[in-house]
């Protein structure tokens, strides 16, 4: 029985993902998913509390499948890694239009775990950029700008007929964002006072011989007016 439950859950998620891909968000109802999976609707609720929980599982499944197919890996250069992450975000959104639209729907009860995990990956990439002195703004601001720009670029492209899409829109958006958050020079102190401060801020949590309160105060001071 312990082996049957995971298999049944995976079967439901795969059926829901297929339904979403082939028929769109409007077709993703509990009854339709149950029918596609060859089971009764009440069975769905034994594995998922509600539709949002099922959607989150579908998002994790689709994203994991997409990443595995792309066989991606972190680059040694934080700047190149940041760009690669942007490109994968755009590609994923365009390849999974219905799912992306549901995950970014502001009427949802809360953020999707899959979306939250994606943000954590972005934060890690931005942190690496800050650590080499290439960030001119606080890490939080950089993450929010990149996230907003990436989401907006995908939604704009999805709202446009494929034959009318501007193929350079996402690249132009990335260039616009990075020109406002990155310094031009990779080395310190050549990156200037702003880059130096942000780079130092990235290491504050790791500083020895400081209490938690002292680290918090130092981080707050470094974030002022930035």
Describe the structure.
- The protein has 226 residues and is mostly helical.
- Helix content is 68%, strand content 0%.
- The protein contains eleven helices and no strands.
- α5 runs antiparallel to α7.
- The longest helix is centred in the N-terminal third of the chain and has 20 residues.
- The N and C termini lie far apart (56 Å).
Keywords:
single chain; 226 residues; mainly alpha; 11 helices; 0% strand
List the helices and strands and how they pair.
Layout: H1 4-23, H2 30-37, H3 41-44, H4 51-70, H5 78-95, H6 97-103, H7 113-131, H8 139-158, H9 169-181, H10 192-203, H11 212-223
Helix pairs in contact: 1-2, 1-4, 5-6, 5-7, 5-8, 7-8, 7-10, 8-9, 10-11
Number of strands: 0
Please state the average pLDDT score. Answer: 82
Beta-strand content: under 5%
The ordered string of helix (H) and strand (E) elements is HHHHHHHHHHH
Given the structure, what is the number of helices?
11
User: Residue share in helices?
Assistant: 55-70%
Q: Characterize the main sheet.
A: none
Outline type: globular
Distance between the termini: 56 Å
Structural class: mainly alpha
In brief:
The chain is mostly helical and 226 residues long. The chain is built from eleven helices and no strands. The radius of gyration is 21 Å and the shape is globular.
